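Support case: user asked for a sample of complex input and structure output to validate their parser. Sending the pair below.
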Amino acid sequence: MGPGPSTVPARILKAISSPTLGHLDPQYIGFMDETCDMIRQVYRTENALSFPVSGTGMAGMETIMVNLIEPGDEAIVMINGVFGSRMKEILTRCGASVHVVEVPWGQTFTKQQFADAVTQYPNAKLLGVVHAETSTGALQDLSGVGEIVHQAGMLFAVDAVTSLGGHDVRVDDWGIDAIYSGTQKCLSCPPGLSPVSFSPRALEAIDQRKAPAQSWYLDVSLLKNYYTGGGGRAYHHTAPINMVYALREALAIVLEEGLDARFERHRKMHLLLREGLQKLGLQYIPENSLHTLNCVAVPEGIDEAAIRKRLLTEFDIEIGGGLGVFAGKAWRIGLMGESAAEKNVLTLLAALEKCLP
Amino acid sequence: MGPGPSTVPARILKAISSPTLGHLDPQYIGFMDETCDMIRQVYRTENALSFPVSGTGMAGMETIMVNLIEPGDEAIVMINGVFGSRMKEILTRCGASVHVVEVPWGQTFTKQQFADAVTQYPNAKLLGVVHAETSTGALQDLSGVGEIVHQAGMLFAVDAVTSLGGHDVRVDDWGIDAIYSGTQKCLSCPPGLSPVSFSPRALEAIDQRKAPAQSWYLDVSLLKNYYTGGGGRAYHHTAPINMVYALREALAIVLEEGLDARFERHRKMHLLLREGLQKLGLQYIPENSLHTLNCVAVPEGIDEAAIRKRLLTEFDIEIGGGLGVFAGKAWRIGLMGESAAEKNVLTLLAALEKCLP
């Protein structure tokens, strides 16, 4: 019940241990096609180029940025926590001039703030924002933002690491051009892959690059020949085959439950937890809390690490501490995928009641 | 029996399906420490910074290059196959001026050619070479090369993707400053991680960089805080936990067999295969063949793809076709890790005899 990895169901652990096929074996290519198709479904997109990057969520962030940005480009990043700052860091390493729009940690951005940002920095090629800030538990409303970004002629890039599979992520409806997530949060799969999706508009921008992406490993202009190659799959690198088995099973579980039913389960578990935490006198930090990650302030005078340790050793429950400016000041309680269950919520509340003075 | 992935033993498939721990869980940190220690043993090195990169072998190549090279640096690459060319490609994307020393595919380099290279390009910061060229099956002798490279004040970078666990790789004895491999070849682990090792001399060069590495995901100056952090592990990215379970088990199996015994098994299986192939009239392409990958010329007038397909469908045996200039002209037969077994060699020889006209 920390900020991830979440609990991995037995079905997925069984799938990951299937015999390792060759990465060009027709059967494996079939599995990969099914995986890409399910990635499209959970992202609610028709984007042809939707695939799992062969690295963790941060490799997904880097894939988006190294492909869309060239040295000298301008970019806007909306920062309200750790992962917005990382976007800035990675964009800077891609040679971009980065304009930052910042609000205090825990807050989110209004549509007006997006509109102001694209007006203030009209030459930016890309605007990046985090949908679900794992460091603060804040959920950013993205509806209508794509239009604002597109009207300014920019690309819209989104971090959905802690939302995909737990909150609705509507890539096509929201006009998202490039998005990445991780497997180990609300998909309840082990970490190791990053599902990404690129819009046709993003692919056009990549086609118009003056120079190749600075990363060969993450270069979409090469990778697309493998992931959307039809019959003639070009070898690029050896895919992490067993991890793909796991992700394929995880996505199948998500779609069997149904996206809407799954989001509703996360919402209900969040409300149950929220009610219990408030009874214990604990206050949520963000205004607009994620269902999947619950970030509460540690009451004055309490040694937060000692309580986390007691939860782990006495009750076998892991929750997260604060990151960055929230270090020592916040607990982060994950209700992600398989972990978003009534039994878990009630056990944690009972354990917390015992541990709090 | 292709060029990888090789057959994965049941013990490793069992390990990969163990419950997913948190990446900062003390038990997992212990597993990671054991894994890094075993990576040191198989590389025969004392290098403190030896760890599995969270990506496949090509991510390992990129990790070495993005950390050791800055825009404007010069580098030398010895090319005798596909993977030397990839080194050049990645170095170029790092902003290096790359000097190439090339011999025909299948050949290897003499010590004199290394000495001539560092004399001809004295300003290079790094010399890169492939120990085991997966595309040609050639084994490069590396003993004494490190001295030549160091005397010229350069760093020595090596690709050991198809040798580690099947041929002796002596990082310290051979003066290698940075090396990478993959898990899916002679370690017989699923693909998804890249064991790397950096010498103290390489770390010094990284400390003296003027600008950060262009990749954040692969930045060793950040990663070393996690992999050699002792008590206070800094969170960088979520490690691919189940893949690390698999690699830990794979390395344990290698060390249980013993490095020397394992190399001797690969040598014997290579000799058995070579004798049989020659009886069938097939000729090896490289002068100095790997034991782990056997590259033979397809006889005139034979449809090589049809024979590979028959081997796969009738006999359940996968072998590889040629890459690059060898496409359509070579077969590549892997004897890697678990796959280097007498039963496999004899079955393949019998099947080939049936398939050849």
